[in-house]
């Protein structure tokens, strides 16, 4: 929503405007969205007396408390008031899109006034998330596969809640009776890299591997588009916010910047599920001081579960 407003304001920014240009958010008089002459977006919260806080200046974000502002609007009108101003100091459209989505989840999902202390606390958290984002095309492809597993589920909310938070987690999904690791590839064969722990868990967990073959197609979806589609399936505010933050951890700054359109093959041919115990592994002497064993395996000719059994595993 805010990104659409951002693009609209950029297109209509008045010539020689030397202050903020914006509009109210959803008809609210206490919440405004604007841009400046540099294309930097701001979200402005009407401030009540006695809510002053020290200003914040972080890597990408600045917050000014109790600032007297004039917001120019279309038609020559303007709005003058005292606001807490949250500004994003970058005009890269893909980075702006990520941050505006973070603001939506933090402040717009539930309507109501926000105190200066609450704004300060949430912005520090969001800025920390944003500053730690990484960039890797492998992350994008892997994330696409994991999001596809959530999207195709009959109960996407349940599967999303089973999605492990940490990017470095040993498994992608933790179900009630088993764990699931998703491997996605754009190669023609099911070539994947595994850790020994994923296929031979030392804890004795019942482990499965979901292999997803992806094709690069003009009619496919980018990982950002797929993420937005999955987020629309999640109605609970906390679940949706958690899912978005997790996507950022796993997909990094490429979440919207990546223009790679991917698609699965028709008739369910892209997806295959295997018992981890059936995947061949390198032989390592248990008494040898060898740890963190990783290896590549081709599952193209391995025996996969039946479609019925695979659906049961994927339902988590």
TrEMBL record:
Database matches in Pfam families: DUF4420 (PF14390)
Species, as recorded: Thalassovita taeanensis
Protein name according to UniProt: Putative PD-(D/E)XK family member
Domain of life, per lineage: Bacteria
């Amino acid at each position: 929503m805010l990104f659409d407003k951002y693009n609209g304001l950029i297109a209509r920014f008045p010539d020689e405007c030397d202050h903020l240009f914006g509009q109210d958010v959803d008809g609210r008089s206490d919440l405004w969205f604007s841009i400046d002459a540099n294309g930097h977006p701001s979200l402005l919260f009407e401030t009540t007396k006695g809510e002053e806080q020290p200003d914040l200046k972080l890597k990408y974000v600045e917050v000014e408390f109790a600032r007297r502002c004039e917001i120019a609007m279309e038609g020559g009108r303007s709005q003058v008031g005292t606001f807490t101003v949250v500004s994003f100091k970058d005009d890269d459209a893909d980075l702006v899109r990520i941050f505006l989505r973070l603001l939506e989840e933090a402040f717009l999902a539930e309507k109501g006034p926000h105190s200066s202390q609450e704004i300060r606390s949430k912005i520090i958290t969001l800025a920390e998330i944003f500053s730690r984002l990484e960039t890797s095309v492998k992350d994008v492809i892997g994330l696409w596969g994991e999001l596809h597993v959530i999207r195709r589920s009959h109960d996407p909310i349940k599967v999303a809640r089973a999605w492990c938070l940490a990017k470095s987690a040993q498994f992608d999904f933790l179900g009630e009776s088993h764990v699931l690791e998703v491997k996605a590839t754009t190669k023609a064969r099911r070539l994947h890299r595994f850790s020994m722990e994923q296929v031979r868990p030392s804890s004795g967990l019942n482990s499965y591997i979901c292999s997803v073959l992806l094709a690069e197609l003009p009619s496919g979806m980018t990982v950002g588009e797929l993420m937005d589609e999955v987020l629309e399936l999640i109605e609970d505010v906390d679940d949706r916010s958690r899912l978005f933050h997790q996507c950022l951890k796993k997909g990094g700054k490429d979440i919207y910047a990546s223009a790679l359109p991917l698609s699965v093959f028709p008739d369910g041919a892209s997806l295959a599920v295997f018992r981890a115990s059936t995947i061949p592994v390198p032989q390592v002497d248990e008494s040898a001081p060898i740890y963190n064993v990783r290896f590549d395996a081709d599952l193209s000719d391995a025996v996969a579960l039946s479609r019925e059994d695979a659906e049961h595993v994927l339902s988590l």
